[in-house]
Structure prediction request, 346 residues.
Amino acid sequence: MIVIIVQDLTMRIAISLADSHISQKPHFAQKAEQAGFDMIWNSGESIPTFAGMLHETESVNIGSGVLRAFQHHPKNIAQHVLDLQLMYKNRFVLGLGGGTKYMNISTLGEDFSKPATRIREIINFLRYAWSMPAGEPLDFQGQFYQITGAALRWNEDPKKLRAPIYLAAVNPAMLRMAGDICDGLCGHPIASIDFINNVVWPHIDEGLERSNRTRKDFDHQTWVTMSVSKDRKQALKELKVHLARFMATRSYSIVLDSQGFAGVREAIQKAFFNNPNDIDALADALPDEIALQHGIAGNQDDILEQISKYDGVVDGISLYTASNLMSYDRVHESIEMTTDAIASIK
Prediction:
């Protein structure tokens, strides 16, 4: 029975509200908490949104999946996180990522050199700033960031502050960094079980060894791209197009190439760069069976059955809507169906 399989799961189940309309995020966060989700994630473009979501919930942790580090000055990130923790009892989790080179150039107008070094420096600064009591001067001297001046406001008792940092990573250097200096991983939403076992975990383990830690000291969350619909064909096509647009990104080539699917990756990139709006060509370039190795799709019963394959592989999953072909109404429908499905087995 599906229910028995899912109720026996040891991993935690979270939901991502990315791509839902901002006006609906607090409502969906409240509903997700009531459904029994272990955590709630949201995209990181709008920091104030997290205050709205935290305000409408009582005890569930809510995280940024992910906040793009280079969009903000490190001291602003530190203060925003501190504010959320003080107002909402340490329930915020900072998911941090660098973004791809193309993303940064197209949205911020800059190619940030040595992104891994920059992010390590940002994380070091955040922890330094959070450790300094209000009223003390800051003096942080890094390669890219030199930050002095007053400490964060309202940080009268740093020992009471808990601010876990999760890193978004798909390539080896960032995965090792996650294991070395972070509390957890925001795993990429096109990761298959094989990729997680054969690429992600080994590099995280290297990082954990550097910091004299084990997997018990680390929270590996992986995003699972999904589409839920009564129409299975619709759900599968939505999943395939969303995954294909991710897989066309050159920075993510390691995911398919490491599994022997370089030919599939080349076909997807050919279709995408020929015409990114040719939905049928993109969907055709990604075989059904490979799509379903890298995400989940179907009706509510199908979803409950498919999530069980991640149990024992990671510490938790975050169910992330395949929104590329979806209107807001369709995104909201998929989130509601997912929430109802999880509520039925919690």
